[in-house]
Amino acid sequence: MMLDLQSSGSHSVDGNWRALGKLLIYCSGCSGGRLFNSVEIPGHFVYRTRFSRTSGKSFLLPQCRTDILYVSDPCEHLDQGEEGDVGFFRGVFKSFLVSKVRKMLIDRAAKLHPTAVCPYCKAKLWDMLQAKMIPQSASCRLGAYEDCIEYYVCLNGHMLGICTLLPLSDSEEASESE
After folding, report:
1. Could you report the per-residue pLDDT of 22-69, keeping only the tens digit for each?
2. Which of 6, 11, 57, 137 is most solvent-facing, going by the fewest CB within 10 Å?
């Protein structure tokens, strides 16, 4: 795992350690139709997780790229009917309370989701799609269709999202099997 949790006074991971621990090892899935429309996938522990600060840059608008966001690789859930192959990803901001993303969400008067809460800490969630704060670079990083990505950020800086994954081409499948 590439997540550096060392604190140098001014940088801290927001929320509590139990929530952070759960975020690191648990794919929240989705159920009940509150988030991510009609997809029903139960939450589960993940076998292996990799979080990347470099990947996190892809999820930030250019004016927010000095913020630090660690993002996981997508947890793939294949053959989800009409939805196709679905990927869940999650992340955490370092020092979210003083981040440019949080300031921009407040300045844009972004709405909090009316009913859903963060599966990791139970805080209210901002809808990044509604706030128009999902850059195109996020879908490239995830290997997803451009218009099929959405994610939420909670008041503590935990991120959770879903995307519809692009299918592998024949040449990619062949190179992986060699």
Report:
1. 777 777 777 655 666 666 777 778 877 788 888 889 899 999 999 999
2. 6
> How many other C-beta atoms can be found within 10 angstroms of the C-beta atom of residue 21?
11
Contacts 24+ apart (CB under 8 A), 49-54: 49/1, 49/24, 49/25, 49/73, 50/1, 50/2, 51/1, 51/2, 51/3, 51/24, 51/91, 51/92, 52/2, 53/2, 53/4
Closest CA to 14 of 87, 70, 79: 70
Tell me the C-alpha distance between 134 and 93, whole Å.
15
Residues 6 or more apart in contact with residue 103 via CB below 8 angstroms: none
Please choose, from the candidates 140, 144, 163, 121, the residue with its C-alpha nearest in 3D space to the C-alpha of residue 30.
163
Q: How far is CA 145 from CA 27, 87, 172, in A?
A: 21, 11, 17
AA identity, residue 158:
H
Is 19:120 a contact under the CB 8 Å cutoff?
Answer: yes
Q: Do 55 and 64 form a contact (C-beta atoms < 8 A)?
A: no
Neighbours of 104 (CB within 10 A): 17
Give the model's confidence band at 112: pLDDT under 50 very low, under 70 low, under 90 confident, else very high. very high
The pTM for the full model equals 0.79
